[in-house]
From TrEMBL:
<feature type="region of interest" description="Disordered">
    <location>
        <begin position="200"/>
        <end position="247"/>
    </location>
</feature>
<dbReference type="GO" id="GO:1990904">
    <property type="term" value="C:ribonucleoprotein complex"/>
</dbReference>
<feature type="compositionally biased region" description="Basic and acidic residues">
    <location>
        <begin position="226"/>
        <end position="238"/>
    </location>
</feature>
<keyword id="KW-0687">Ribonucleoprotein</keyword>
<protein>
    <submittedName>
        <fullName>U2 small nuclear ribonucleoprotein auxiliary factor subunit-related protein 1, putative isoform 1</fullName>
    </submittedName>
</protein>
């Protein structure tokens, strides 16, 4: 890959503003929050705008050669693409500061620098900035405003697309859930029907106990007959005979015997 900025992705972020340590405390006024925008003007130039939209607006334009010099100063090895990637990663991190200083005049500070590093202990990138005034400052602030709007619009469109995708996935999930519940109901109906059939055919012996009924009908009289044919083990004298009818000739004879006098004998 050649030493160009064709693949450089724009960076829009916030820089924490602070005064240079060489600035006398008596001259340090309150600093506002700064928004900065880094982008490639073309394949060979990088531009940085930073503004608080009130008192200060800063700009820096760096050529590929100036970025190469910066690379040598901070001592980053590797390829050119690796250096550009580290530069963008540092400016995209939360470790970006705008250090304000230089000679102060009636309008305030005259110079500043953008300082950033990817993470603690990593090489520090420092890019000097020049102050813009009047129409140049207005143009830079206008450009920053449109870039902020475009960034907001892009995020809003991403959110809308994600919401639409989530809505579609939710509908698909609901449809799949209804389909699953329908299949489950069909399976439950099949299982219930199978159980009913099993109970119906498995309990037919109880519903029609033919063998038990026939055995009771056939064996009960036979058992009673056998029991009546067997000789009784009971004492014959203990059996009741009052219910038997005695023939008439026997009854008369018995009564005559009872009426006889013992003396005649």
């Amino acid at each position: 890959m050649g030493k160009g900025l064709e693949d450089l992705q724009p960076v829009l972020g916030e820089a924490k503003a602070e005064w240079n340590i060489t600035t006398p405390p008596s001259q340090q006024s309150s600093l506002s929050r700064f928004i900065f925008y880094v982008h490639a003007i073309d394949s060979s130039r990088l531009r940085i705008h930073a503004s608080d939209f009130r008192s200060y607006t800063w700009e820096s334009i760096r050529t590929v050669q100036q970025l190469e010099d910066l690379r040598d100063v901070i001592g980053i090895g590797g390829s050119w693409s690796e250096f550009v990637a580290y530069l963008i990663a540092s400016l995209s991190s939360d470790n970006v500061k705008l250090v304000v200083g230089g000679v102060l005049d009636s309008t305030g500070a005259t110079s500043a620098k953008l300082v950033a590093h990817k993470s603690k202990g990593m090489p520090l990138i420092s890019i000097p900035l020049g102050r813009l005034m009047n129409s140049s400052a207005d143009d830079a602030k206008s450009n920053l405003s449109f870039e902020l709007f475009n960034a907001y619009k892009g995020q809003r469109d991403d959110i809308v697309r994600e919401q639409e995708r989530t809505c579609q996935l939710t509908k698909m999930l609901h449809a799949e859930r209804e389909k699953s519940e329908s299949i489950q109901r069909q399976l439950d109906a099949v299982v219930f029907s199978s159980k009913r059939k099993h109970q119906k055919f498995g309990g037919s012996d109880k519903a029609f106990p033919m063998s038990d009924s026939l055995s009771k009908v056939d064996t009960a009289p036979f058992s009673e007959k056998q029991s009546s044919d067997k000789p009784s083990n009971k004492d014959p004298h203990s059996m009741k005979v009052g219910s038997r009818v005695v023939p008439a000739y026997r009854r008369a004879k018995v009564r005559g015997v009872v009426l006889q006098d013992d003396d005649d004998n």
